[in-house]
């Protein structure tokens, strides 16, 4: 199996990232090409993941993370015998809309704007409880996958 995850360097109770371990070079090349293509697909889950990671990790590490997401999705589809289900580019925003609006308000505040949010007229505002984990819940039996060309 190809290795698309970063290695781990443990020493004295500290964990640091290391280089990607070697694996099947043909699989690694194929994953790289697939990741490179899927991050340029509009309104796709992997493209949204890449855009979220690129800001804090850089383009190459974000690409390796997308490669890892692709191979993880493929593994789950093959072992659980479930079809591919595209979650869409707005999956992270739709799963926790309050967090997304808070992030946008903070970004505008940093630019010097004062923002006041008003709910749309006639729409009841629903507040959802905070999620137990940072990762949004995925529908059972589904895995993210790229859109077919």
Q: Can you describe this structure?
A:
Strand 1 and strand 2 form a beta hairpin. The longest helix is centred in the middle third of the chain and has 22 residues, at 59-80. The chain contains 5 helices and 2 strands. A two-stranded antiparallel ribbon has the order 1-2. It is globular and about 55 Å long. With 149 residues, it is mainly α. It has a domain at 6-95. The chain has helices at residues 25-38, 45-57, 59-80, 91-95, 97-110; strands at 6-11, 14-20.
**Uncertain stretches:** none
DSSP strand count: 2
Strand numbers in spatial order across the main sheet:
1-2
Give helix % range.
40-55%
The average pLDDT value, as a whole number, equals 79
Number of helices: 5
In whole angstroms, the N-to-C terminal distance is 26 Å
Radius of gyration, in Å, reads 19 Å
Largest sheet: 2 strands, antiparallel
Which word captures the global form?
A: globular
In N-to-C order, the SSE pattern is EEHHHHH
Structural class call reads mainly alpha
Strand content: 5-15%
Tag the structure with descriptive keywords.
149 residues; two-stranded antiparallel ribbon; single chain
Helix and strand arrangement:
Elements: E1 6-11, E2 14-20, H1 25-38, H2 45-57, H3 59-80, H4 91-95, H5 97-110
Antiparallel strand pairs: 1-2
């Amino acid at each position: 199996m190809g290795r698309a995850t970063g290695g781990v360097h443990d020493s004295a109770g500290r964990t640091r990232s290391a280089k990607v371990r070697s694996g099947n070079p043909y699989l690694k090349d194929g994953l790289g090409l697939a990741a490179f293509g899927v991050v340029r697909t509009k309104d796709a889950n992997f493209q949204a993941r890449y855009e979220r990671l690129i800001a804090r990790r850089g383009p190459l590490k974000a690409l390796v993370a997308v490669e890892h997401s692709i191979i993880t999705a493929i593994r789950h589809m093959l072992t659980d015998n479930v079809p591919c289900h595209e979650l869409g580019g707005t999956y992270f925003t739709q799963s926790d809309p309050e967090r997304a609006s808070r992030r946008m308000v903070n970004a505008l505040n940093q630019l010097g704007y004062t923002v006041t949010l008003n709910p749309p007229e006639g729409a009841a505002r629903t507040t959802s409880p905070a999620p137990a984990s940072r990762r949004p819940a995925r529908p059972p039996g589904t895995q993210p996958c790229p859109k077919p060309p």
